């Protein structure tokens, strides 16, 4: 088990390095999404685009395999693959984990440093992502320092990103049409 957790951490750190050195021209198909996350934990996910290639993701996760609850805030960097609707991303953030006993009473708490690597695809108003998210606890939680998580997220796109090139194209057509109308009068 410890070897598997170590593999997740090494893979995440290597991919963060590789993706952060990528200088591909990029854009996203959304600004804000909200949805569900399910895998080794079940939770809610909100993603907000904050800059070019950068999003901020807020997560609430309740573990399925153990009695941990996590709240994470992760900054993610995106790189497109083929199209702006298909991305890979890496991220790192700050979180908090609470461990519960069988009676659902709090027995341990710790701050965490969640790391994330994943891929996402966007269809019309639906955003689907898969990620691996090991979290490094800044104290022991349930006898562990690393809390692994893998999940599929399905989110609804609340605010779509406007396609500036397409809007400019139509604005140019409108302005040409208006000029022709003015010249006729």
Q: How would you concisely characterize the structure shown here?
A:
The protein has 185 residues and is of the alpha+beta class. Helix content is 22%, strand content 59%.
Order of helices and strands: HEEEEEEEEEEH
Spatial order of strands in the largest sheet: 1-2-3-4-5-6-7-10
Give the biggest sheet. Answer: 8 strands, antiparallel, barrel
Q: Mean pLDDT, nearest integer?
A: 78
Q: The CATH topology is what? A: Porin
CATH architecture annotation: Beta Barrel
- What is the highest CATH level, the class? Mainly Beta
Class by alpha and beta content: alpha+beta
Low-pLDDT segments, ≥5 res: 13-27
Set down the secondary structure blueprint:
Blueprint: H1 2-20, E1 30-39, E2 41-51, E3 54-63, E4 68-81, E5 83-100, E6 106-123, E7 126-132, E8 135-141, E9 144-147, E10 150-160, H2 164-184
Antiparallel strand pairs: 1-2, 1-10, 2-3, 3-4, 4-5, 5-6, 6-7, 6-8, 7-10, 8-9
Give your account of this protein's structure.
The chain is of the alpha+beta class and 185 residues long. The chain is 22% helix and 59% strand. It has a single domain (2-184), classed as Porin (Beta Barrel), CATH 2.40.160. It has an 8-stranded antiparallel beta barrel.
């Amino acid at each position: 088990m410890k070897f598997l957790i170590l593999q997740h951490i090494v893979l995440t750190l290597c991919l963060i390095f590789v993706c952060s050195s990528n200088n591909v021209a990029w854009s996203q198909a959304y600004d804000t999404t909200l949805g569900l996350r399910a895998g080794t934990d079940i939770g809610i996910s909100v993603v907000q685009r904050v800059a070019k290639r950068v999003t901020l993701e807020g997560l609430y996760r309740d573990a399925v395999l153990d009695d941990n609850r996590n709240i994470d805030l992760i900054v993610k960097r995106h790189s497109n693959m083929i199209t702006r609707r298909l991305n890979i991303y890496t991220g790192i953030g700050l979180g908090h984990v609470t461990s519960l006993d069988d009676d659902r009473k709090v027995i341990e708490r710790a701050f965490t440093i969640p790391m994330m690597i994943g891929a996402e695809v966007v269809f019309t108003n639906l955003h689907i992502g898969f990620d691996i998210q090991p979290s490094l606890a800044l104290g022991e939680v349930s006898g562990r320092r690393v809390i692994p998580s893998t999940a599929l997220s399905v989110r609804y796109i609340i605010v779509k990103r406007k396609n500036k090139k397409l809007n400019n194209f139509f604005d140019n057509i409108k302005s040409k049409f208006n000029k022709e109308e003015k010249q006729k009068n």
